[in-house]
Amino acid sequence: MHRQGVGHPEAAAAFLRDDERAAWHDDALWFVRQRRDRATDLPEWEALREAGSALKAHAMSRLAELLVEFERRATASGVCVHWARDAAEHNAVVRGILRDAKVKRVAKSKSMLTEECGLNSFLEADGIEVVDTDLGERIVQLAHQPPSHIVLPAIHWKKEEIGALFHREMGTPAGESSPDALAAAARVHLRDALLNADAAITGANALVAETGGVVVCTNEGNADLGMHSAPVHIVCVGIEKIIATLDDLGVLLRILARSATGQPITAYTTHVSAPRPGAAMHVVLVDNGRTARLADADMRSALHCIRCGACLNTCPIYRRSGGYSYGHVIPGPIGAILAPAVDLGAHRSLPFASTLCGSCGDVCPVKIDIPGQLLTWRERSATAGALPGGYATIFRQLGRLLSRPVSFARAGWVARSALRTLRTLRFIPGTRVARRWNPWTRPGRDLPLAPRESFREWARRAGRIP
Questions:
Q1: Residue 427, exposed/middle/buried by CB under 10 A (0-12, 13-18, 19+)?
Q2: What contacts 61, CB < 8 A, 6 or more positions away?
Q3: Hey, is 214 helix, strand or coil?
Q4: Closest CA to 64 of 258, 231, 290
């Protein structure tokens, strides 16, 4: 669960206490990453990434103009377009629409924006039932949890746990853990919600200015069934989802599914540009800090994110610490650069939740320089005096050490000697000292043997430097 006031290291440590779950979580995400690698093994893949990056940069450079064009075309087609400056306005607009239509039950398809705005709890406090109809979203909703992943919201749940949850909430047979049986039960459960809802709320993967249309991608068809059954359809979407043309959409769809789940194309891709006869369609365009981010030249490209989750699946920190350790609605590397823009003090540990290996940037389909932005946030944290506890002292002392080559060489010798000693202590039977001082002694982990000489000593001995 997201826990305010708890830093990433503490929350990650709590996740890692369950070694079996941590290993399973790592394997599950790596499986998705490998599927992505196979799906992106295309001769034109890098050209598609370049095109994706360019089309998003182009859209952000003309954001106001494209949004107005979208509104004009959508309104001409009978869509009611609303604007919301922040989460409170967004929630109030949605509630107003539902009140006017006397809605009591809403079928909602996965939307990270509504998670960002806290829409479910807001509507439920007003007596409106909200049923999340994406299977993963429904699992975490029944468990009273937020999503732990932006594409795979229940990736931290095992099938046996889902079976127990469904037995308790849906009355499925006790001990049932067959994915097919659980999916069949969920299908019956969700179909009732979809077909009998008074309104459907969906997110959007893109807004096309050229057509005034909204594009929604799902693998379960739940968004399509909801929006085509309910008399009211509300699209809740961040303004950064705007793109200029249908040609841009073609590129976006090719990179989205491959990066998200390793599929050539999402199972259901729907382009809606007008309400059904006799039905109403609303689009709520939400800012909620996005224009402020647009004005930040160093961080602007974070708005290019298409929410594919590829950076999460490849990140060694996310895979081993779980989504809830980030304490923000968007976890992983992309969340670590989005969250500090919302509240640097509350999320000051997130820019440090990275090895800076660069894998997140390598897989990003729109080429966001995530490692570079993480470094910038670290620099801003230091400037703002918002470094996590102890970091300021450590880095100040480290800076002094690195500025003195002789002292640095001596410190390296001391560190290597100490590590070699700890390596020996690790094998002392029953010692509690080694466990306390050396976390590498946890079962299944090995402390690497420190070299006897430094890299500089090796290079000098090898004649590589004078």
A1: exposed
A2: none
A3: strand
A4: 290
- Would you say residue 396 has pLDDT above 60? yes
This prediction has a pTM of: 0.87
Alpha carbons 319 and 333: distance in angstroms, whole number: 11
Q: How far apart are CA 200 and CA 110, in angstroms?
A: 11
The edge-to-edge listing of strands for the beta sheet with 242-243 is: 242-243, 206-208, 213-218, 268-272
8 Å CB contact between 347 and 3 = no
- Rounded Cα distance between 464 and 457, Å, is 10
Condensed to tens digits (0 to 9), the pLDDT of residues 403-433 reads 998 999 999 999 888 877 776 665 554 444 4
pLDDT tens digits, 143-196: 999 999 999 999 999 999 999 999 999 999 999 999 999 999 999 999 999 999
Residue type, 104: K
Kind and range of the H or E element at 302? Answer: none
Q: Which residue has the tokens 């102890």?
A: 390
d(CA 86, CA 57): 23
Q: Which two tokens stand for residue 328?
A: 């923000």
Strand partners, 234: 201, 282
Contacts 24+ apart (CB under 8 A), 96-102: 97/199, 97/232, 97/234, 97/282, 98/123, 98/128, 98/198, 98/199, 98/232, 98/234, 101/198, 101/199, 101/231, 101/232, 101/280, 102/198
The residues, any chain, with a CB within 8 Å of residue 352's CB and separated by 6 or more, are 8, 378, 388, 391
Alpha-carbon gap, residue 378 to 179, rounded angstroms: 43
Examine the pLDDT at 388 and tell me if it is beyond 50.
yes
291 vs 438, residue with greater confidence: 291
> For the ranges 4-13, 80-89, 209-218, which has the lowest average pLDDT?
4-13
| Ordered strands of the 80-84 beta sheet | 80-84, 280-286, 232-238, 199-202, 105-108, 129-132
Distance (Å, whole) CA 290 – CA 336: 16
